[in-house]
Amino acid sequence: MNLSQEDWVAQLQADENAVILDVRTEDEFNDGYIENALNIDINKGQAFIYEIEELDKNKNYYVYCRSGARSAKACQIMNELGIENAYNLLGGILDWEGETVHP
User: Fold this and answer.
1) Which residues does UniProt call coiled coil (predicted)?
2) Mean pLDDT (the chain, rounded)
3) How far apart are CA 14 and CA 89, in angstroms?
4) Confidence of residue 103 (pLDDT cuts 50, 70, 90)
5) 33, 71 contact by CB (below 8 A)
6) I want to staple 37 with a disulfide (CB 3.0 to 4.6 A). Which of 2, 20, 69, 73 is the partner?
7) In what order do the strands lie in the sheet with 60-64?
8) Cα gap 6→61, rounded to integer Å
9) What positions carry a catalytic annotation?
10) What are the residues whose beta carbons fall under 8 Å from the beta carbon of 14, sequence distance 6 or more?
């Protein structure tokens, strides 16, 4: 499900069962990420699938990437793997107006 930044943030803040998932590469992640985000690189193919399969299917996942394209694909894959609640951040981190963490 695609959500505008406003809806994504509002839903995330109200969700006690939320996990933020960054599906960018490790290098992109290290350039700055949304606080508390878990990084699983969608470009790793089967390794991405394995890591997604290990996630708690009862949680709600708030997924983002650089622009919203990879995270949309990630949400689709997550749905296919039995994770019903995966929310894509439209515009990705490029359009993100909130705080980011720089390791």
Assistant:
1) none
2) 97
3) 16
4) confident
5) no
6) 20
7) 2-3, 86-89, 60-64, 18-22, 38-39
8) 16
9) 65
10) none
Helices 46-54, 69-80: crossing angle, 10 deg rounding: 60
Structure tokens at 28: 């992109």
Q: What single letter denotes the amino acid at residue 99?
A: E
Any residues with CB less than 8 A from the CB of 70 and at least 6 apart, and which?
A: 23, 24, 42, 43
Residue 89 has a CB neighbour count (10 Å cut-off) of 29
At 37, which amino acid appears? Answer: A
> Alpha helices of 15-91 — where are they, by DSSP H?
26-30, 46-54, 69-80
Cα–Cα distance for residue pair 76/14, rounded to 1 Å: 23
